[in-house]
């Protein structure tokens, strides 16, 4: 290790450890993270002489290394279940299927149709406001421009439209039974 790098290590070792400990909240993980950080610093030791603010540079390396580890952990846990070594299940069976099931598709289509039918019972101004906001996903400002009213009016209409739609949905016994659990 270079003399300059050794001085950086001596000066900032405790700081980096405490930062790692603050990020991980676990001494073992903090030590692992700190080791990864110093490995990266050693890998880029040629750049140390050019760095003006060593502490900021080390902090950035530490934060980025922590984020990378976190993302890797999340990605790994998303695609593989934690399993005992002796489990006789093919690994592909543990990969989640991100496609929605046929039942879920049908249920979603039925709910969409049901809400659209109930929206048709609203006054045109409320129906149009809901449509612009939720279906077309316009902002309040865009809706205000389209409808030639103030943003406050759009907010009021949106509030009233949602309340009225809720009333209509809850007044239909078949909808209540389908949507709310018994």
Automatic annotation (TrEMBL):
Q: Which InterPro entries does the record match to this protein?
A: RNA_pol_sigma-70-like, RNA_pol_sigma-70_dom, RNA_pol_sigma70_r2, RNA_pol_sigma70_r4_t2, RNA_pol_sigma_r2, RNA_pol_sigma_r3/r4-like, WH-like_DNA-bd_sf
Instruction: Give one Pfam family.
Output: Sigma70_r2
Q: What name has this protein been given in UniProt?
A: RNA polymerase sigma factor
Would the keyword Transmembrane be found if you checked this record's keyword annotation?
no
**Keyword Transmembrane among UniProt keywords:** no
In terms of Gene3D superfamilies, this protein maps to: 1.10.1740.10, Winged helix-like DNA-binding domain superfamily/Winged helix DNA-binding domain
Q: Which family does it belong to?
A: Belongs to the sigma-70 factor family. ECF subfamily.
The transmembrane segments are none
Looking at the record, the residues that make up the RNA polymerase sigma-70 region domain are: 9-75
List each copy of the RNA polymerase sigma factor 70 region 4 type domain by range.
115-165
User: Which key words are in the record?
Assistant: Sigma factor, Transcription, Transcription regulation
Which PANTHER family does this chain map to?
RNA POLYMERASE ECF-TYPE SIGMA FACTO, RNA POLYMERASE SIGMA FACTOR SIGV
């Amino acid at each position: 290790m270079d003399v300059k790098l050794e001085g950086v290590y001596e000066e900032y070792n405790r700081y980096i450890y405490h930062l790692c400990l603050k990020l991980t909240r676990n001494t073992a993980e903090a030590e692992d993270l700190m080791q990864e950080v110093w490995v990266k610093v050693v890998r880029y030791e040629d750049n140390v002489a050019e760095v003006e603010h060593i502490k900021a540079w080390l902090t950035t390396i530490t934060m980025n290394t922590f984020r990378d580890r976190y993302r890797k952990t999340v990605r790994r846990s998303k695609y593989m279940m934690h399993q005992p070594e002796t489990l006789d299940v093919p690994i592909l069976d543990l990969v989640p299927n991100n496609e929605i099931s046929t039942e879920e598709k049908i249920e979603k289509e039925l709910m969409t149709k049901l809400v659209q039918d109930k929206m048709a019972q609203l006054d045109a101004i409320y129906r149009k406001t809901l449509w612009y906001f939720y279906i077309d996903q316009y902002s309040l400002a865009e809706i205000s421009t389209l409808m030639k009213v103030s943003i406050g009016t759009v907010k009021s209409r949106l509030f009233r439209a949602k309340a009225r739609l809720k009333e209509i949905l809850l007044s239909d016994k078949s909808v209540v039974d389908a949507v709310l659990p018994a």
